[in-house]
Structure formats: C-alpha cells, structure tokens
C-alpha cells in the first residue's frame, strides 16, 4: 500500500488521538478508497460496524414474549406471542425484522444477549464514548478501532466511515480512519447533467486546490449516482421499465434510507476488492421516550431492509461471504415503560452479528427481568468480549494490542 496518502493525512492533521477526527473527516473521497482495490489480501475478512444511535430498546427488538414480567412491565408496549417472529419458545424478533428472522433461520444471525459493561452510564454521549473507546472505567481519546488502525500501519483507508462525521471509534493515537460521507445535496434540476459532469473534470494547468475541488465534486457525482441507482432499483421492483442504473443495488424495494445508502457504498467497495478492512455506518433516532412502539417499528424496518438487502448482495461473491456485520447501540431501555408509552435510558441490550461467516444462534445468558439493578437489566456479556472476538476472528489482530489485558471472548459465533 502506498505511503503518499498516509503522509498527506499525517502532515495535514499534525495532531493525534481524537483531535485527528476533523482532519480525517475531510481528507478522503470514494475515489481514494477505490484506488486501493489491488492492495487487499485474498483471504482477508471485512468488519462492518453498524451503530444505532439513541439507545435502541433491546426488549422490543429481541422479545421475551413468554415472560410474564415482560408483559407486566410494559402492558401497552409489549408484543404478544402471536405478533413476534419466533426464534424459539421464549424469544421472538420484532415484527419489523422479517429479513433478519430469515437470516436467523439460515444460521447467519447471531444474537448476543445481555451485552453491556460494569457500572453502566445512562448518558447518550458518555455511554457511546465508553462503547467506542472500549474503556468503561475512564473513556480515553482513542477508539478501539482507531487503536487497531495504529497497530495495522495507520493507513486511514483501512478503516472507512460513510457517516456524516467520523466517529470517535476510528480515532487512533497517530491518525484516524477516512470519512466519505453520503450526500444527496446535488440539485440536478438546476444544472444539466453535462454541466455537472464538466465541473468534475480536471483542467490543464489548474492549481492543486482547484484540482482537488474538481476531484471531490466528481466523487460527489459518483456517490449521488449510486444513491440514485439504489432508488431506481427500489422502483424497479414494481416498474418493468426501470433502467440499468439499478444494477448492484439492494433488492429489497421501497425508499432508500440513510443506512441503506451507506451500506450500498460498502457493498460497492467490498465488490471492488478495496483494502479497507473496517467500515462504519450508522442510523439515529432510537431515543424513544414517547410513543415508542410505532416509531421503533419504523426504524427497525429501515434497519432490517438495509441489512437483509446487504446480506443478500454479499452472499453473491467470495469477498462478500467474508464480511461480518456487527450491530449495537449505546444502551438498551429500562424494563418498565414510562407514562408516555415509551421507555427511558437503560443498560444492557443485544448485539447482532450477521453474515455468511457467522455461526448463527443465541449467545450469552438472557438477563433476568425481575432481578434488576435499580430497574435496569444486569449485563451478562461484556461488550469487550464481542470486540476481542471480532479483532481476532475477523481482523486477524491480537486483542491485547487494542484491549490490553482483557481476556474474555465469545464462544462460537465466529
């Protein structure tokens, strides 16, 4: 892998740790990532980390429908046995998760129950810092995947975010991952396509700054075209005249959500064989203090559609079958519903692992709904067990280089 981009990044930032985020966020384009297509080892696996911001309600995601304590604690929010997508005689998935339920049935979805950390924090920001730095006692300035990046040579293109801002989890001591945000802000009705394309073409004798602006605009056009292709694919399910731009997009139909657009870009990169080993994507809106049932169902429907379509697409190629997706949120919700038909900030929840390389099933002990910690679930699996397993089984890195002396591991899903 060349050192030019790495040197440019380090010189431009002049900083380390979390302060490198601002420099990393504007330094890379999709073209930069695709330029690494020849640098990837053939047997390398890929980690896609999906963050659900806001604190997703784990009890209404993986539902203990047979537990009377569940129905007693949230009578108006609870799902009945006839509503859930059954996993076994006690648990079921939210009705909006039909695609994930199919993956579970195919043995490609692992549900890690009761995941959390000691002395849980119920602040969105502090809890997310804890999850992303993997330092529950005192969150530092580096993310766990940023430290992995440092240990892997530091090239930012090894860890890519398609989110609006580069998350803390990709910040290392000596640099940070690359941010390539998805955008749909081009106003095509204002300018004809040839004019827009011309703005992205290099000009002889132009300054380095103008050349960089031109390249970034061309990349923006490419991203916009990709998102448009995904929309066209969705329309194509019902429209036999949909054009060829739908090729390669998710095949699940309906409008394109932000998460689906991000995962479409991940899929393109995986299929191109880029050097990137880690992708970070996200979806927000899970802070469901009021009227939760319908709002969460809509959000989980977006998650399901994006993940199921991505998994289907990844199953078509050898590189795609080496992808492991991990889905988490900063905390779950309290066991008992509040007076606004919602739930407040809680603690332990579920982590999903999915993909062709995953051994599906239930992992970790289910937390008790009656033996609580001040009304909250007691965690049964430390999230660092999940991270250590992903580092060793997906990223081929000794967990001690990232998590220090942590010795916990998951047994079985990878």
TrEMBL record:
Nucleotide-binding as UniProt keyword: no
Chain segments carrying region Disordered: 234-254
Keyword Manganese: no
InterPro entries found in the cross-reference section: DUF1501, TAT_signal
Keywords: Signal
Signal peptide from the UniProt entry: 1-27
Domain of life: Bacteria
Protein name: DUF1501 domain-containing protein
Organism for this UniProt entry: Phytohabitans houttuyneae
Lineage, top ranks: Bacteria, Bacillati, Actinomycetota, Actinomycetes, Micromonosporales
